[in-house]
């Protein structure tokens, strides 16, 4: 088989020097590892074949959460670690993450999935329940959820009477009792970009639109052949990190040419977005009669996000989409709770991502572990670290664990440092968002409240760098609608690796939900001129 290294002098084509780490994959795990390693003084190169967060990391349910339902699988370590991380992460990124209250309506018809350890245990000791979730078990689960992670900032669980609480108004009248608990929202794709930016600020090299064609060991060093915007190149590194997400197995077998019995289970999670279904700012945790759960979450001010499904995925990860069956399933599920049925006609957007779960042999996609697994191959002296699974809430802890596994090869590296260290724009108190918005509007009187809120929730203290010396909206360049201006576009291109219209409208922001076709066309024309000019400059 032909090699990407054939036909040329590797030394002549190689990037100057040898980096400590070469990371494959620009999702949250890859960017999190790159940031952590760069902050420890290691030299890092990261290559992403498309845009940052283009795959799974922009298609999550967008929550920093402990995973309440994982308690039914006895995943106590995973839940505890995730619960501990919620507040650690919240303090480091109060602009793109914030507390959210979840309302869990109770019905005696709620059931377990039949293959959970809790379901099997209850079927032995309480067979008359016939798979139903008793209220006392939900209360016990929420008590554990409140106390496993050392909660300090977030409020605890409380009971609601849905007949009098506003959270009951959108629901069918049969729901009377609910429990309200805390988790956190996060803008997932912005989280990835900010980790990449911070990694670069600490010395890492971030390569987007750069595919890794082949990697091989050579005298205790990895040679990595890439194909990027400027053509083929070869890099050298002392260690290779495979954070390819859904492509992790492909990297092992087809790029590094290593045989392994470890595998990945691709599970598709699909979501639907509808116009706003209710007026308050809380989310819902719905339990189905089939044992599954979904969330209904206020989204981008004017919408409601509903998801997710869990289906085994066949085919390329890049071809994942929300099927009609998944859309209808989510509509029907939500309609079991909402007084006004949710129909396919209500759906304005869908998205789907493929989770690369570690293949632990579970019978169903829902039961497959969400815990991460790090495996290291040290044959030939140059380590290969493969990242399987994981969830967005535990990305920082995963990065610490990855560096711990690689530590014997880098005794010069510094220690742990990322806990609570702000990401770009997040250098203000957790409870300082309202004050930041007020001060932004005071200094830039032309900003509406919605505009200022969007800028702060996307860019935090860096919103001022985008606005600069502007005294009127016209000073910010072309207006593309929905408060998107030329100044913001230029920031995204120059500072946040944006190279295409989808990078801007669906990952750096979600303004694709708000712009008209004519406005999208105008933005496309602007990018056609701005991107070549930027590359030439």
Walk me through what this model shows.
This protein is an alpha+beta fold and 537 residues long. It folds into 3 domains: 12-56 and 190-263 and 369-409, FAD/NAD(P)-binding domain; 97-186 and 265-358, D-Amino Acid Oxidase, Chain A, domain 2 (2-Layer Sandwich), CATH 3.30.9.10; 432-536, Helicase, Ruva Protein, domain 3, CATH 1.10.8. 31% of the residues lie in helices and 22% in strands. The chain contains 15 helices and 18 strands. Strands 3, 4, 5, 6, 11, 12, 13, 14, 15 and 16 form a 10-stranded mixed sheet that branches. A hairpin with a 5-residue loop joins strand 12 (283-287) and strand 13. Helix 2 (28-39) packs parallel to helix 6 (188-201), helix 2 (28-39) crosses helix 9 (395-406) and helix 10 packs across helix 11 (449-459). The protein is globular and about 70 Å long. Mean pLDDT is 90; it is low at 8-15.
